[in-house]
Design brief:
Length: 224
C-alpha cells in the first residue's frame, strides 16, 4: 500500500517514511500543503498522514479540499495541537483517525491496520479462500496451516487483490499501490503480469486458483 506523508518537520517525515518502508509501505513525502495538493491530484494513495501545522496552509483546509475531490485514501490527522476542538473538526471533515504528537510508531501502524480492516470489512484476522488463509497482521499466506513462501511483493500483490475482492484492478493501479508511483516512462504493463504469473505458479503447486482471474484488456480480479 502506498502512503503520502504530509509533514514539514523533516526529521519526523523521514522517521515515518523509514518506519513505514520497513513495514512494506511505499511512501512519498510532501513538505507543504501545495506539494501535497499537487501529489494528490495526480496520484492515488491508500493512506495520507496529514500534519495540521503546515507552513503554507492549515492541514484542515487540505483535508476539506481532499474530501471535496473525493480522494479514496484513508486520512490520519497528525498534530501537535491537542485541542479537542481540532480533533473533532478533523474527524467531522472526514478524517479516518487522529494521532496527537508525540505518538508511537507501533501505535500508528496498528491504527493503519485497524483502518484497513474497517474499510475492507475484514472482521476476522484470517481471510480464507479454499485451503488458503491470508493472515494480514502477520503477513503470511497459509495453506492448510502451513506457510507458503512468498516474496514481499507477491504477498503485497495478493493481499491487495484480496482486499479489493470482486473488483477489477488495472495493472497501473496495482503498480502504483504496490511499487509506488513510478515516473510515467518507468511504467511497464508486463511487469505486473510477470509477478502474477509467479504468484499463480507458486499457489497452483498447492491447489487450483479459480479466484484469481485475468480480465482481458483490463487487469486482474480476485473473486471471493
Ligand atoms: Ca508541522
Amino acid at each position: 500500500m502506498n502512503v503520502l506523508i504530509v509533514e514539514d518537520e523533516r526529521s519526523l517525515a523521514k522517521e515515518l517514511a523509514f518506519f513505514l518502508y520497513q513495514q512494506n509501505f511505499q511512501c512519498e513525502v510532501a513538505r507543504t500543503g501545495h506539494e501535497a495538493s499537487e501529489l494528490l491530484a495526480v496520484n492515488t494513495y491508500d493512506f495520507v498522514l496529514l500534519d495540521l501545522g503546515l507552513p503554507d496552509c492549515d492541514g484542515l483546509d487540505l483535508l476539506t479540499e481532499a474530501k471535496a475531490q473525493e480522494i479514496t485514501a484513508a486520512i490520519i490527522v497528525l498534530t501537535a495541537r491537542g485541542e479537542v476542538a481540532d480533533r473533532i473538526r478533523g474527524l467531522d471533515l472526514g478524517a479516518d483517525d487522529y494521532l496527537a504528537k508525540p505518538f508511537s510508531l507501533p501505535e500508528l501502524l496498528s491504527r493503519m491496520h485497524a483502518i484497513t480492516r474497517r474499510r475492507f470489512g475484514v472482521a476476522k484476522p484470517l481471510i480464507q479462500f479454499g485451503e488458503f488463509a491470508l493472515d494480514l497482521q502477520n503477513r503470511q499466506l497459509l495453506h492448510q496451516g502451513q506457510e507458503v513462501t512468498l516474496s514481499v511483493k507477491e504477498f503485497d500483490l495478493l493481499s491487495y487483490l484480496v482486499l479489493h475482492k470482486n473488483r477489477v484492478l488495472t495493472r497501473l493501479q496495482l503498480t502504483e499501490h504496490i511499487w509506488g508511483n513510478l515516473p510515467e516512462d518507468g511504467y511497464e504493463s508486463n511487469y505486473i503480469d510477470a509477478h502474477i504469473k509467479n504468484l499463480r505458479k507458486k499457489l497452483t503447486r498447492y491447489s487450483e486458483l479459480p479466484w484469481l482471474e485475468t480480465v482481458r484488456g483490463l487487469g486482474y480480479r480476485f473473486s471471493l
